Automatic annotation (TrEMBL):
Protein name: Bifunctional diguanylate cyclase/phosphodiesterase
PANTHER family: BIOFILM ARCHITECTURE MAINTENANCE PROTEIN MBAA (PTHR44757:SF2), DIGUANYLATE CYCLASE DGCP (PTHR44757)
Domain of life of the source: Bacteria
A Pfam cross-reference name: EAL
Length: 628
């Protein structure tokens, strides 16, 4: 009944306004345009633009004075960038852009902000000098914002509109009643528009989740309630592994669909026990209300399990992988900033762990993360200055004890950090965007070394190189390998690329295309660490593989565990049926070697046969093996 009455009232208001204003519409068109366009669009938009410019400038000043943090600056940077983008492309902002001289100024402001984006997101709490320099560099933004605001209300066109208003008092009095009613209608529309704008400002348009700005409000509210009621909170930071590679290989449409699916699953999992928001990109955060601390780890596991379920696509199936980091209030912090930082640190460790996917924050993680950051800088320098090393471990033909190939294994002895473990080195490269450079360095170094051995008379020798998932999935691997072969003059048939099982799971169709391109070059492909990942028999049948490497964990147990022995036997039989050569990793006992020979395993490597060694030592082994 109430809704019907409101509808009738709005209808009556609209009809009354229409009847009283139809006669004056054509005669007062200029006045209406001035009121609706100049005052509402130009005035409000230009004022808001100048206000956002001043807020961003003040945020930089506050950071320099250490009264605000870098996130505060980045928040206002995003708001200013969003405001300018709306003025540049928004249909409702068209009157603003049409003002003389406004569009070039807006485009220049946008370009300057984009140029300085990396500098803004590189700011930290200690970036006082950088904040001052950035403020000076963007000082002209204040003048441009002011220029747009002032010029919007000056000029001959504006004076002509004002003259038109001054000549309209008599006409306006005739329609005063209609205008009063129209004011009521406009007020209702304004309230409706305000609600819509508020929703747009506080929600992510792709997923419908609260955005970063709204999340901080929800977080402050949750912290206040937790403090009053003496209850705990958990903050879960969630990141999709290799999401950029999905966008690059499958397209942004698939990436958007994946993000929407993730948002739906997180909402369904948390339900009424907390709030979920999208911070940006593939990062999601959840605030969970706790009855007891154990609930946090249970929820983190549920969130992870909900995300890794297959996503059905029109052309296939996607198997997402995610990492979850959790921090607790008040154990790990009493402010939202501290909780976010610690949850992000925990998520970072889960993302780069070989075995952990869900991680609760622990003291000391910050120091280890700082080490990773310093390592990334040192690693970039080491790659550029050719300070890395490759050791080589021979792979033997088990029936003749001759060397079939060598596997290139990365080593790095840093002057600052000492000997850096290979797994840590690779994790740092993956996280800080150095994986491509590192892979190319390994490919070139191994290819050059093998070419030298070929020139020394070891013509049939091959080299195995491990390929990281990031370079495999972006579709550039075949081009990179082809370029390296041309530079080094290496015969493609002597290069063996090793990929791990989980590399090919994101996009089976894309994996086949990449592998087929490599096979056309004459390169051999080996599936590394078989048995520890997610490959199914259908994957083995579809992927154009030459070799299969049995993980050392199975080899280690085969002499004591009949099930491990039978499993190795089954893998060898399966590979032989698919015309794949089998390499057994981790042979450390004579009994293991003998059993593998009996089962028909063609190749083997491990400490019992030979340890990894520098290139010079490997050359001596090759020479001895050749003479024997």
């Amino acid at each position: 009944m109430v809704k019907t009455f409101k509808l009738l009232a709005l209808t009556a208001i609209a009809l009354t306004f229409s009847a009283s204003s139809i006669y004056s519409y054509y005669r007062d068109l200029e006045v209406v345009r001035y009121v609706s366009t100049t005052i509402k669009a130009i005035g409000w938009s230009s004022s808001e633009l100048e206000l956002e410019v001043l807020k961003f400038d003040q945020a930089l000043t506050s950071l320099a004075a250490k009264t605000a943090d870098a996130e505060f600056v980045q928040l206002h940077y995003e708001l200013l960038l969003s405001r300018i983008n709306l003025l540049l492309v928004g249909s409702e902002s068209r009157p603003v852009r049409e003002q003389p001289g406004v569009l070039p100024v807006l485009e220049d402001m946008w370009q300057q902000l984009i140029i300085n984006e990396d500098r803004v997101y590189a700011l930290t709490a200690d970036s006082r000098a950088e904040a001052i320099a950035l403020r000076e560099n963007l000082a002209h933004l204040r003048q441009q914002g002011r220029q747009i605001n002032v010029d919007s209300f000056s000029g001959e066109n504006v004076w002509n509109q004002l003259d038109s208003i001054q000549n309209a008092p008599f006409r306006s009095s005739l329609y005063l009643g209609g205008l009063l009613l129209s004011g009521g209608l406009m007020l209702l529309l304004l309230i409706r528009e305000n609600r819509r704008n508020r929703y747009l400002a506080y929600h992510d348009m792709l997923t419908g989740l609260p955005n970063r700005m709204f999340f901080y409000q929800l977080g402050a509210k949750a912290l206040g309630k937790a403090e009053r009621t003496h209850q705990g909170l958990a903050l879960h930071m969630i990141d999709l592994n290799a999401f950029k590679a999905i966008n690059d290989s499958l397209g942004h449409e698939v990436g958007d669909r994946l993000l929407q699916t993730v948002a739906d699953r997180l909402r369904d999992t948390i339900k009424g026990r907390g709030e979920v928001a999208r911070l940006g990109g593939d990062e999601f955060v959840i605030i969970q209300r706790l009855q007891q601390k154990e609930d946090a780890t249970q929820m983190a596991s549920k969130l992870w399990q909900s995300l890794i379920r297959d996503v059905i696509l029109p052309d296939g199936c996607l198997s997402p992988q995610a990492s979850v980091g959790t921090s607790l209030y008040p154990d790990h912090g009493t402010s939202m900033s501290d909780l976010l930082t610690h949850a992000d640190t925990a998520m970072y460790y889960a993302k780069h762990s070989q075995t952990i996917t869900v991680q609760l924050y622990e003291s000391g993680m910050d120091e280890r993360r700082l080490r990773r950051q310093k390592l990334s800088v040192a690693l970039k320098t080491a790659i550029e200055q050719d300070l890395l090393l490759l050791h080589y471990q021979p792979i033997f033909r088990l029936n003749t004890n001759t060397i079939e190939s060598v596997e290139g294994l990365l080593r790095w002895h840093s002057l600052e950090f000492g000997m850096v473990p290979p797994l840590e080195l690779i994790a740092v490269a993956e996280h800080y965007g150095l994986a491509h450079q590192l892979n190319e360095w390994v490919l070139r170094s191994a290819s050059r070394q093998l070419q030298q051995w070929h020139q020394s008379g070891h013509h049939g020798l091959k080299v195995n190189v491990n390929i990281s998932p990031s370079i495999f999935m972006d579709g550039k691997l075949a081009t990179t390998v082809k370029q390296v072969l041309q530079e080094t003059g290496l015969d493609a048939s002597t290069l063996v690329l090793e990929i791990t099982e989980d590399t090919s799971l994101w996009d089976t169709a894309g994996s086949i295309d990449t592998l087929q391109q490599l096979r056309k070059l004459g390169i051999e492909i080996a599936l590394d660490d078989f048995g520890t990942g997610y490959s199914s028999f259908s994957h083995l049948r579809q992927l154009p593989l030459n070799k299969l490497k049995i993980d050392k964990s199975f080899v280690a147990d085969m002499t004591t565990d009949p099930r491990a022995f039978n499993l190795v036997k089954t893998i060898i039989s399966l590979a032989n049926s698919l015309d794949m050569k089998v390499t057994a990793e981790g042979i450390e006992l004579r009994e293991q070697k003998e059993q593998l020979q009996q089962l028909g395993c063609a190749l083997g490597q491990g400490y019992f046969l030979a340890r990894p060694m520098p290139a010079a030592d490997m050359g001596e082994i090759l020479q001895h093996n050749k003479q024997a």
